[in-house]
Amino acid sequence: VLENRDLQDSIKPQKVEFRSLNFNSTLRWQPGRAREARDTVYFVQYKVYGQTTWQNKDDCWGIQNHVCDLTRETSDIQEPYYGRVKAASAGIYSDWSLSCRFTPWRETMIGPPTVTVVHSNKSIILKLQAPRSPYKRKTGSKIPMTNYYDLLYQVFIINNLLDEQHRALVYEGKDKVIKIEDLRPGVSYCVMAKTYVPMLDRSSAYSSRQCTVL
């Protein structure tokens, strides 16, 4: 029995946590202390905070991965959720490992906007598009994150003659089309943007860099 108990403890999943980007939410974990046996499989359940019964996630029942997509199960973005995982190896089952409470609206990371650059001779015109959620309208198009948050765009410009680290904030606001003027012809400029959520005081990562020479 003791040996079994040891095995149960050593295969128990570690660091169970939700990760979420634009409401694409997954539960992730690390294998237990035991060098993971080839036959270790995992079982995932989830529930809304306050509910008594756990729901099985059928697609993540007896899987070998260390990640389970719970985007659909956490679509009520204001609700707090829990996830839990247990492992089985050689007919022995570990105890459940529980995640922290996860509220999608509060905790999802928001991605950067998509940036398209159009340039005229002394200015750069940017078109920004908010990231999209996985949830769809009746028409089938994905609902943008601006439906869920009051988002601002932050636009940074790097003048390549100056040092790389010098990113000047040239715009913050809600406009989707932005004109950056009074730039020097023949100089290479790079533009990056972030999404900022004032209510949560949270910024996205930078968008990929768009560079242009006027």
UniProtKB/TrEMBL annotation:
Localization of this protein: Secreted
InterPro entries according to UniProt: FN3_dom, FN3_sf, Ig-like_fold, Interferon/interleukin_rcp_dom, Type-II_Cytokine-TF_Rcpt
Swiss-Prot/TrEMBL keywords: Disulfide bond, Receptor, Repeat, Secreted, Signal
Domain of life: Eukaryota
Assigned GO CC terms: extracellular region; plasma membrane
Residue span, Fibronectin type-III domain: 12-107
Main location: secreted
Record GO terms (molecular function): cytokine receptor activity
Pfam families to which the protein is assigned, alphabetical: Interfer-bind, Tissue_fac
Family assignment from sequence similarity: Belongs to the type II cytokine receptor family.
Function statement: Receptor for IL22. Binds to IL22, prevents interaction with the functional IL-22R complex and blocks the activity of IL22 (in vitro). May play an important role as an IL22 antagonist in the regulation of inflammatory responses.
Name the UniProt record assigns to this protein: Interleukin-22 receptor subunit alpha-2
